[in-house]
Amino acid sequence: MPNLLVKPQGTRGLVHDITPESAGWTYVGFALHRLTAGEATSGDTGEREVCLVLVAGKARVTVDGEDFGELGERMTPFEGAPFSVYVPRGATYTVTATTDLELGICSAPGGEGFKAQVIRPDRHPQMTRGKGTNTRYVTNIMPEDDGAAQSLLVVEVITPGGHTSSYPPHKHDEDNLPAESFLEETYYHRLNPSQGFAMQRVYTDDRSLDETMAVENGDVVLVPKGYHPVAAIHGYDLYYLNVMAGPSRAWKFNNAKEHAWLFTGV
Known about the structure:
Helices cover 2% and strands 49% of the residues. It is an all-beta fold and 266 residues long. The chain has a single domain, classed as Jelly Rolls (Sandwich), CATH 2.60.120.10. The strands form six sheets. It has a seven-stranded antiparallel β-sheet, with no helix packed on it. A six-stranded antiparallel β-sheet has the order 2-3-10-5-8-11. A hairpin with a 6-residue loop joins strand 12 (127-129) and strand 13 (136-142).
């Protein structure tokens, strides 16, 4: 199994390029570009669908020649919700940075009948989840109930310093609907201030997989199976961008039984 902790390759240009092949799985892809104003990246989705997430900065986006104009408001991922663009299977796109830009490219197998569209920051209002030190702030970009895609599920989470998220531990690694869905998942992490770190554990009930990682700014964690809780260290707020996909576009999870007592209200 590939290393679950993926470090960025450099600081500019294409700094992450996670494919099903490199991850050793079937569905999820994630790339990240850091561009300066005037720089551009283009792609052809082929048999896959893509969600372009403006993690930070502004850009002009075109899909199959249709110009969606300049998009973006926030200059860091800790300032509200993002602009995103869904790009269907069999399409081409170009993203041209108009400021410094951090662009996430989320991908999964595509299907017929879906159209390119801008996903504005106010489409899915931010939700507060949990209580106490398990409070976190969730923005769905492409949730399962929006009917906008074949496979992709995309979400952002802000976890304040000293808090936990993806917690109490849950998993989605069995194709057993309606009880549970099988979903591969990536976590792209950012920290504020950037010199901080967080902790993430990925483990299964039988501990055949059990890895705990110190996550730094810009790292990606792969979750092929198992539980995957996160803890933000005191003094450092944590952002992560999740990409999920599997054989069904459904987020149905099961909680770790030994931690069931924690679930009331969290």
